[in-house]
Specification:
Growth Hormone, Chain: A; two-stranded antiparallel ribbon; 2% strand; MFS_dom; antibiotic resistance; cell membrane; membrane
Length: 504
Amino acid sequence: MTTATLPSPDAPSTSGPHWTPRLWGTLIVLCAAMFLDALDVSMVGVALPSIGSDLHLSTSTLQWVVSGYVLGYGGLLLLGGRAADLLGRRRVFLVALGVFAAASLVGGLVDDGGLLIAARFLKGVSAAFTAPAGLSIITTTFAEGPARNRALSIYTTCGASGFSLGLVLSGLLTSVGWRWTFLMPVPVALLALVFAVRLLPRPVEERAKGGYDALGAITGTATVLLLVFTVTEAQGAGWLSARTLGSMLVVALLAAAFLWVESRAAHPLVRLGIFRNGSVARANVVAFAMTGAYGGFQFVVTLYLQHLLGWSALEMALGLLPAAALIALSAPFMGPIVDRFGTGRLLPIGLLSLVAAFALFLRLDEHSSYPGLVLPSMLLLGVGFAFAFPSVNIAATDGVGDEEQGLASGLVNTAIQVGTAVVLAGATAMITAGSAGGDSPQAQLDGYRPALLFVTMVALVGLVVAAAGALVDRRRASTPAPVPDYDYSSAGSTAARAEVLTER
């Protein structure tokens, strides 16, 4: 069953240069949810040592405090995006946001490691529904063009701010108590939920004949869940172990089954034809590389600053603040910049800045200074995300019909989460292999440098894809439209010839 969603009579209008207070309120509510979703990806990072000590968790168990959220988030995004299209974006958003608030509260109160991981997984699942629902509400509420670009720039910059502010807030809150990293989102989520009930437009739904792709939902969700689980567990089991290789084989078989089902389903979970849109396909690859590289880089930086340089949680929060501040301050200006230069130009600039930030950090040593190493990388990181993150989300939904905006949103968010899990797992494996289990400063550096080189190369792949997309767009724009041929042998040929020559 498919659902065509029409705006209600009281839906806020996006026409005109100025938005109504209600429209601004709608956007702020959606931005708050996106900020929380992105924040939770990284906010527990600095708190992990305190959590492990307080709850007596081993290192292998402790990693699931992070991986549990990513598993739920990345594994169910496709289902969440399609559910928003079929069940109603407003309904899905409100229910998922309520679950997010409840799971945050539970996570801050429990005293058992298993319950904490379960709460994190449930938060990830809820984020898998709020993220695509919120993004598709924006793309179906704001008309394509300057209004949508402006709204998406603000929205995605809030997401990038949450992603980068995670470590900053984690450092500040952990200095008070690690439970606050779980409890802080609760009042924000509840406040956003109250305003969302009042402000989000109530659509008038016209249900057309159709059906749910149950088999596609099962195979697609199982593929992503098992992929994220496998790359996360490979750190402990070994990348070439029978367990990891067997799991990867099952992932490949599930992926093949998913593609087979989607190519034949009457109402597929993922219409494969959406990838014929070059902008959508390239944006998903860039999103995978961009956020994956950042996830691996963030992990290396956290270990380096805390373990090798001996920074406290508060020092880390303040040291990483410039990147987050640049991203947050850029929000009001990115809409006009995207309108003027286009995503095709801004994406390569953003990726180039990220590559430079990661490559610059390769100079790390036992006595690196903040002004000489950390600060320049943070500034480049802030500039890169300010340009690239809004652009990649706009490109990922560009040219997609309203009935598939949830799908497009789910795809790009899946690319973001799976990219983070896969590249982070690869970076962790390189750190372990490079250090050979040693704790000396030189052994740690021998682990950090290959991991940094790896994330730099991943970001470079994203840069190449973004640059290729810019060239395609430029060639398409410079190619003149074909002139139709006319049959001049018929009556009136003289007038017809003169008309065509005039048009030329």
